[in-house]
Design brief:
Length: 170
Amino acid sequence: MSRADLIVAVYRHQVEACAAAGPVLSANSDSPFSALTRWIDLFVDFLVTKHGLAAVLQSGNADFETLHDYFLDRLVPVCTLLVDASAEAGEIRSDVGAYELMRGIGNLCVGADSRGDDSSETTARYDARRLVDLLVAGLRSVRSAPGRGETEGAPRQAAGPHGQGTGHTA
């Protein structure tokens, strides 16, 4: 087995593990949103550990070229199941799709260093998981977020640089 074959096999195995976790979490979680957030945690773990493989996977090797399509084919439907269930339960906004969410999470994870050995100040100050948590918190629908003081669908006033209203609606 070549190095490329080994990388492909490990990558596929981890994609399958992430894909298989979705239905299990959906069946065993207290709520659809809980299942979604637990799956997102697994997805972030997967992305951060694969960050080091990015250069290898983009090397032009034919074995690697199909992996991104495989990744999308296996994981977007799982995320769609979890996002749709959460939206139908009124736990998250209904205007965010699975692919869009996954892409946003992926982009936030690009700056993460899973090895923990990058001592640069920029990397040391970047916490991808914290930013993903903020993104996920923003998914919460107004109905499911107690104490928000806004009604769903009502325009909200845009905040200025110091939190004061600007007079414009967002």
